[in-house]
Amino acid sequence: MSFNNLDTLYRQVIMDHYKNPRKRGKLEGDHITVELNNPTCGDRIDLQLKVEDGVVKDAMFEGEGCSISMSSASMMTQVVIDKPVKDALKISEMFSDMMLGKEMEGYDFDIEELGDIQALQGVSKFPARIKCATLAWKAMEQGVEKDES
């Protein structure tokens, strides 16, 4: 597949998650809530996590922002559900490295296995947008840390 076709596919995946977000809404019952915002662009997320016995059992989000931040939140919530917290944190670290354009070596997870998340790889070429892409991931990290304390 040529770069232009791949770029078009990635844009389509990002816009699909933006227009049809997965796991958007509020969790019922006991859960952890983390609210974060990016004051430089106005992105805001309210992430809810249900963590039981060291496993992320469910995740949902509400918020508003650009297509990058909202699609990243949609993708993140899908990926962390049913993952042990330690794996969710490793995936978040890998995502952060991907955003910084680092080599993706030494991880137990292959970016190909993470589905739609690989569509956000191109964000690393736009430093001003990296905070948009990582906002939901930072919220997830804070949420699981709250659970551990």
UniProtKB/TrEMBL annotation:
Name of a matching Pfam family: NifU_N
Record SUPFAM superfamilies: SufE/NifU
Recorded name of the encoding gene: sufU
Protein name: Iron-sulfur cluster assembly scaffold protein SufU
Residue ranges of every copy of the NIF system FeS cluster assembly NifU N-terminal domain listed in the record: 10-132
Highest taxon above the source species: Bacteria
